[in-house]
């Protein structure tokens, strides 16, 4: 709360105390009732200030909540009590905010992790959790984080982008939306690639919203970020091992489990390890319409990235290439340049005739600031979506 507040700390403490003595969820109604019980006479603006402020403190991200509420902010990053940054409109900006001391930052991280159903302590000093409002939380405690707890919060939009929204904000060039919609309609297996924060998860959510409402989508994730607007979504989330190292349910385990759940689409939120073997295996065994995302700086880097992931699962490059070429029908690549996130390429996967290496051939090229044009792989992509020519 700001320094010019109309409510003093004693009143806040009194309301906080009353709420703490009660049980059940902290709702605005409970906060308002606790305020009335104190007998304090305050105007409606001050009463609202108490309710909003305490709700943020007890449930939300406390002093960081106003930053998360800014619609242009996508990430809030805390490196220290007075070292807070936001990613806003395409650039990182320092925020003049004072979170107290390192102990207060640690308490905030531990409380946020708890609201996301995870523990964060010396025995398990890192956490990846999803807060009740959808925000993704990552936190690392010292001494793993040097000096102060490091917090990374990723804002997730409450209303997923529709393809029309993505065209309007320039992420999809006109025409590219129709190609993507057609790929979803024909149940192509899609790999969304891009470097960090380019909008892969967001685009994947939008594409899944286009799936036939009669289909059953099983989403497998580390922290439950995908939010497709679709009537039939089942979420499976990994479980990390306990302090004795037992009880882990990994992404690979969940991909295997999902195949027994009568999925129409198996979706792996992010493929970043040995689970590449299970997901390619699933997509190769009749589970069409599957999707995943992968970190790669360019669509042409996807083969090397997949080979590196395959190596973690003990797959040779040859085995990986054989699996990937039949499992993946299109690569949808995203780039970010400042505030602009853009699907710059839709590519098809093939194999080099001479070397047998996996290749990624552009079918649609859509550079930032330019128009979408057909690339050398267009005929193969058009064939898959049943189109004759570009446009
Ligand atoms: N087209 C867009 N316009 C505006 N904001 C966007 C757009 N796409 C994504 N965002 C926002 O950017 C942030 C990052 O998006 P997202 O999580 O989809 O990226 P990502 O590539 O999956 O990131 P990561 O590499 O961390 O998995 C989110 O806050 C999201 O709401
Ligand atoms: Mg993501």
Q: Overview of this structure, please?
A:
Helix 2 crosses helix 3, helix 10 crosses helix 12 and helix 11 crosses helix 12. Helix content is 33%, strand content 23%. It contains 13 helices and 15 strands. It is α/β, with parallel strands linked by helices and 391 residues long. Strand 14 and strand 15 form a beta hairpin. It has three domains: 51 residues, no CATH class; 92 residues, 2-Layer Sandwich (Beta-Lactamase); 223 residues, 3-Layer(aba) Sandwich (Rossmann fold), CATH 3.40.50. It is elongated. The N terminus is likely disordered. Adenosine-5'-triphosphate (ATP) binds next to helix 8. Magnesium ion binds next to helix 8.
